[in-house]
Specification:
Blueprint lengths: L1 H18 L31 E3 L4 E7 L3 E8 L2 H10 L1 E6 L4 H4 L6 E5 L4 H15 L10 H18 L2 E5 L7 E3 L7 E6 L5 E8 H4 L8 E8 L37 H7 L2 E8 L4
Antiparallel strand pairs: 1-2, 2-3, 3-9, 4-5, 4-10, 5-6, 6-7, 8-9, 10-11
């Protein structure tokens, strides 16, 4: 009996370790898949990204080939979706790996995407909330409705996610279209579980680092604070979802006695720094 208990304890510990195996920050250099495509889907990753950051409520992978650096991000829950739609993600690359210098290094390159008109963002919110207001257990029975919401939100996304903001790249405008000829590619869509998926590709020539350099550099992923809503059209503003589950982020907790962490997350920028070395073949 004691042996059985010991075995069960070891198996439990093994399961817990495996469950915690995914790092908060990506720990490896990674070559981009040969079939990588900037289309706002996780098809080339089979829905498995390298790191999971619960504070910023994203999963992400950074990788490269001989010519480009790629970033893929998946939001965790409706508030992650909402925050990115309203404020965008700013991805910064710095040649400096010193904590005191990397944030304001003069040769930093920063790219923000998406940039969304407030009214369009609200329309996207409405589709998200309509989906998440359907109880998780009831969603299979509402497949026609959820499929319709999926199609509708991506039509809105295709219309809204059209501009990229650039800082620090000489010869490239500060505001460019996703259809630009500069080689900077960005796309974002929602998957069928209503998770926001973001993809970005930057030519290495703009960063000033070559794949054979074997130089470590810093990068920052910032989930920007939403642009303040100035619309006076209350009918255009969607109602908040009524769920309260750990996977979706929840809206409860705190009440009048403590700050609601979800509200803090939604209204304030959050970011983290990490380091990466380009992967060779």
């Amino acid at each position: 009996m004691k042996k059985l208990i010991i075995v069960l304890i070891l198996l439990t510990r093994f399961a817990i370790c495996n469950a915690q195996k995914q790092p908060v920050i990506q720990e490896i250099s990674l070559r981009a898949p040969d079939n990588i495509k900037i289309d706002g889907t996780l098809n080339e990753w089979e829905n498995k990204l390298q790191a999971k950051n619960n504070i910023d409520r994203i999963k992400y992978t950074i990788c490269n080939d001989d010519n480009k650096l790629y970033l893929t991000v998946q939001a965790l829950g409706v508030f992650g979706d909402e925050k990115i739609v309203h404020g965008g993600i700013t991805f910064t690359v710095s040649h400096s790996v010193e904590k005191r210098k990397r944030e304001k290094a003069p040769n930093n390159v920063a790219i923000t995407f998406p940039l969304v008109d407030k009214e369009k963002a609200l329309s996207i919110d409405a589709k998200q909330y309509a989906y998440f207001n359907i109880d998780v257990k009831e969603r299979p029975a509402h497949k026609k409705e959820t499929d319709s919401l999926y199609e509708a939100i991506n039509l809105l996304a295709d219309d809204a996610f059209k501009e990229i903001k650039i800082i620090g790249i000489k010869g490239v405008d500060t505001l460019i279209s996703v259809y630009n000829t500069d080689g900077i590619k960005a796309a974002a869509r929602f998957d069928k579980t209503m998770c926001f998926v973001y993809e970005l590709a930057i030519p290495l020539k703009y960063i000033g680092i070559a794949v054979n350099d074997s130089v470590k550099f810093s990068y920052n992923i910032k989930i920007n604070a939403p642009t303040r809503q100035t619309s006076t059209n209350r009918s255009a503003q969607p109602s908040r979802p009524v769920f309260d589950t750990p996977s979706d982020g929840g809206i409860g907790g705190g009440g009048n006695t403590a700050p609601n962490p979800n509200m803090i997350y939604r209204l304030e920028s959050s970011d983290f720094w990490a380091e990466y070395t380009l992967a060779k073949k």
